[in-house]
User: Fold these one by one.
Assistant:
Number 1:
Amino acid sequence: MKFFRSSSNQDAPQAAAHKLTRRSSGIGEMVRILNSQEGLCVLDVGATSANNIQFLTSQGHKNYSEDLLRASLDPALRTQDATGNTVIDSKKFLDENLVYPNGRFDIVLCWNLPDYMEESLVKPTIDRMWSQMKPGGLLLAFFHTRDAGPDSTCYRYHITGTDMLEMQEIKFAPPGRPASEKQSPRLQRVFNNRHIENLFRDFASIKFFLARDNIREVLVVR
Amino acid sequence: MDVPQANVPQSGNSESRERATIGKSVVIKGEVSGSEDLYIDGKVEGSIDLRNHSVTVGPSGNVKAGITAKSIMIQGKVDGSLTASDRLDLRKSAVVTGDVTTQRIAIEEGAFLKGKVDIQKEMGKGAAS
């Protein structure tokens, strides 16, 4: 696993706020399922998207929205371990987020969360999702390949109803800083295929789609 | 409306609707109901029920209450369920934790929403934007 934590953010590209598009085999499969069934329970853990809410609810699905990356940046989650190092309190994070009954969701839209989330939260978060998904439920996640640099832009993904996704750069102001100091979240690491398989080892099956933009899309069945 | 009138209700020309305002320094704990629009820039804990009117939570507003109204616009922080029979607007500074039920929804980039979203088409005409 490759980490990028020590890299500087000063050279991060100043991406425009407009939407880009990319073809996604994973969302294409998801959309086919969403179009062919009704009343599915869908959890979207990406940045809040009106497009996604509109698409999912217009198809008669139940939509749950929860921006886990932003929630994970809550300063209240920072605590100190026995040696005085600052760590993230994953228990507190899961006490306050992803609080749903087991077996609720048919589909989880995980997007690029594992690549940008604090390392210590990733596995507990995926494990919690596994518990809250129905057997046979689907999870879609995107992982950068090793060719992606640490300044890879973090996007919010908008479903269009086809296999095309619209993407919009995400920026957050650091805790306690004004909105004028917004920055794009930094890529925390790159998972290789073995790490991804290990991350989803409790799931029944996993399918990879390699895209041209240094992204591997992963469709996982609970 | 059994809400302290922290600021004088706006009463402009004949086209404007009456609106009560809960100012930044006002804290209310309890049930808020009434028959006029409401602007909240203070702190409210309890419940807010203005079924035929609009509720706006301003940038400084901090609401820990369920809100039921015809239309709801959020610019501040809300911890509670939102039920809008017509329209819900979440502006970019909105931070909402709670389930949402509405006919139409608009969410600006940057808004934060954590909860279930239920779009009820039978509440009226139109679609989400």
Number 2:
Amino acid sequence: MRHIRLIIDEGPAEYNMALDEAMLILRGAGIIGDTLRLYVFNPPAVTIGYFQSVSKSVDLSFTKENNIAVVRRPTGGGAVYHDTSGEITYAIVVSAESVPEDLVESFKFLAGGVVEAARILGAPAEFRPLNDIVIGGRKFSGQAQLRRLGAVLQHGTFMHGTNLDVLAKSLIVPSIKLKEKSISSIRERVTTISEYLGRKVSKREAIEALIKGFEKALNAELVEGELSELELILAKSLEWKYGSKNWTCMRP
Amino acid sequence: MTYFRTAKVIKEKSGKYVSIEVEVSRECVVKVARITGDFFAYPPEAVDNIEKYLAGKKVTHSLIEDLRTLVNDAVLAGVGRERFQSLLTDVLEEVMKACRKSAAE
């Protein structure tokens, strides 16, 4: 059976984005093996997609007042609120050869663990192209992906109990998107596992479900390991970028 | 000094949107070009290169043609390549029209 290293982690946004990029580079160079990292953003943060305008995607007054960090991701896609006590992020790095060549199919393949995890907890989750996972038509998980050096990094969210009011106040959705969906605010199109089930799903439960979910979806055994010194050194050297205003505001 | 600024947005069936904003001087030279949205591009730098290529250049038909090669360097997801290309062309043609009007005044 295929073995995938599992890292369970927690840290600030700039560390998380730097480590994801470091792992992609090292996986591409063949220095590390396939790895799944499950992590929490602490303190809470908003991450925005590589191409997004920061001022048009995030309510910067609200995030500042509420000590929510704002960091640009190395991956495309939309803005995400990462609630320290209600959201787990996954990042998986694998070789590009091991995922479908078609981009949408690869999103779906690597997000399979999230779908399975939600189902284990009792929520009938489904993948919705391009990169969302929904329960009853409402999104609780988004995925983003970057490919370099023959390797793929996919990271995504798992909202088990995110405070959706804070999410709705932190993110700005372009009116062109709300209009098409015939909704007046983002709150109407998102949910959490806890909200769907009508009971609180703990962080521990969510992590256990994700581990089982990814094992099933990838037909692999996850083996808990540790980050190498090289990964940590490379991540440290990339942290300045993710912590800098120049990077996050490069598309103001 | 910015003489003319325009921005156009498209929303794709995939749910993704792209906005292209261009600012030019009275001489029709690009001061700023910004391509933003929640789409995906591989490598992401291919889209950065379009913005960088535009900066400091006079907007002409041949510039628009040159950009086709750069657009072709990007693998786009969430937005069709042809839609992306025509959005870029629409924005730059609007800029050229404004510049011609200025020259005629």
